[in-house]
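Database export, one record per block. Field names are fixed; values are copied verbatim from the stored entry.
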Amino acid sequence: MKRTILTLFAALALAFAAPTFAQRSHPGSGPPPGRGPGGESGMPASHADTGGPHADISHRSPDDVLSHNSAIAGKIKALTGKDAQTACSGFKNIGQCVAAAHVAKNLDIPGGFDALKAKITSKDAMSLGKAIQGLTPNADAKAEVKKANKQASDDLQETSS
């Protein structure tokens, strides 16, 4: 009985391990035929790397995006009334900055964008949702974050094409 269970366990281990061994790359060989330089994902390079034309720019630094994208800089200026570089300084990524700009405008935040930015980018930084709760307690913070993230995503997609 123990021998049967042990044999069954070994067979299962080999069955699950075999595909892993088959997928290993071999030194000195390029990608398999039909596979571009996108790596192990099997996706074309424009989708697999972060620098291609279809890359998701929402996670890139504000300085990086704003230096190459005047359209999004214009949107940020329209939303905040400030130069985009100034408005986005201190934010981790451009998506966070654009979403905060939308929230400030959508909710007419007391103290405006600057008050919201201060809560998000200070040394005691908080999430956008917590910042909304702190500045406008009657707002549905979760819904507002979702709405602003969608608006930011749409803006970034529209301006990167």
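Remark 1: The CA atoms of residues 119 and 132 lie 9 Å apart.
Remark 2: Confidence is low (pLDDT under 50) at residues 18-54.
End of record.
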